[in-house]
């Protein structure tokens, strides 16, 4: 179990959306320092927040952040993109970009920070997936989140010997810019952030943030044709 109080934490994509809510939640629980990243420089006036530039598509950018943030105990791989296009007819570059951010970006950060977590006692790695890791109908995004889920599960295996808690998070719709065009019930970023950090602090290996996500995971043993998001049917 990793308690947040007095820990040094890093949140990718912490400037906005769910990442910003995670930064707020971590500070509320007593984190000593939170590195919060964005693709361009920005200012956060709170004394515990250290802002940093990060482009997860760039190994050099990830390595530069790891140089600066060598005191991190907990890493949140939150940064992600959703480029809505069908797999067959959408721009193929959108597919490769989605995987570059949501899968390879997450893995670049994990590879760069694993030695840091080990040096600092193990700590935790928290990776954002989605209910769409399990449900068809969201093109490259769902495919990338399925791959990220698998990456997380293997990282848990590979990081066990250094005592790093690895948490995979699956969430339904959250009210952020990512899904602003979708007129569906959404959880607030603050409530999702609280559930994620609750799971981390309770030694969870997986956090399912809402009932739709819990039902989707339960449906995995059933017929694959039923694994679609309600709007895709
Ligand atoms: N919203 C939902 O309904 C929902 C549901 C399930 C899971 N999720 C997942 O939750 C995470 C956060 O999503 P969100 O809803 O907060 O999305 P969002 O509002 O669109 O924010 C995306 C975040 O990712 C960062 N980012 C995007 N591309 C990046 C890159 N190439 N390098 C570094 N940072 C990058 C952005 O940083 P900048 O500030 O630089 O733009 C931003 O902070 C994502 O992994 C998403 O897939 C979201």
What descriptors fit this protein?
single chain, 233 residues, alpha/beta, 7-stranded parallel sheet, 7 strands, 14% strand, binds NADP nicotinamide-adenine-dinucleotide phosphate
Please provide a written account of the structure.
The chain is of the alpha/beta class and 233 residues long. Helix content is 39%, strand content 14%. It contains six helices and seven strands. Strands 3-2-1-4-5-6-7 form a seven-stranded parallel β-sheet, sandwiched between helices. The longest helix has 28 residues, at 92-119. It is globular and about 45 Å long. Bound molecules: NADP nicotinamide-adenine-dinucleotide phosphate. Residues 12-13, 15-19, 38-39, 54-57, 78-81, 101, 105, 128, 130, 171, 173-174, 176-179 line the site of NADP nicotinamide-adenine-dinucleotide phosphate.
């Amino acid at each position: 179990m990793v308690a947040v109080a007095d820990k040094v934490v890093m949140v990718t994509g912490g400037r906005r959306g769910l990442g910003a809510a995670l930064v707020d939640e971590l500070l509320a629980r007593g984190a000593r320092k939170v590195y919060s990243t964005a693709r361009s420089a920005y200012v956060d006036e709170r004394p515990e927040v250290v802002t940093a530039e990060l482009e997860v598509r760039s190994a050099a950018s990830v390595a530069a952040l790891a140089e600066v943030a060598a005191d991190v105990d907990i890493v949140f791989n939150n940064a992600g993109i959703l480029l809505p296009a069908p797999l067959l007819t959408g721009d193929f570059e959108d597919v490769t970009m989605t995987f570059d951010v949501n899968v390879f970006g997450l893995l670049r950060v994990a590879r760069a920070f694993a030695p840091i977590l080990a040096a600092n006692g193990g700590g935790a790695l928290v990776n954002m997936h989605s209910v769409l890791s399990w449900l068809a109908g969201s093109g490259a995004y769902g495919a990338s989140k399925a791959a990220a889920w698998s990456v997380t599960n293997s990282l848990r295996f590979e990081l066990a010997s250094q005592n790093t808690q690895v948490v995979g998070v699956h969430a339904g719709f959250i009210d952020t810019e990512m899904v602003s065009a979708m007129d569906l019930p959404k959880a607030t970023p603050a409530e999702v952030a609280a559930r994620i950090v609750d799971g981390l602090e309770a030694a969870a290996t997986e956090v399912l943030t809402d009932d739709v996500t819990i039902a989707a995971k339960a449906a995995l043993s059933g017929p694959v044709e039923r694994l679609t998001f309600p709007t895709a049917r």
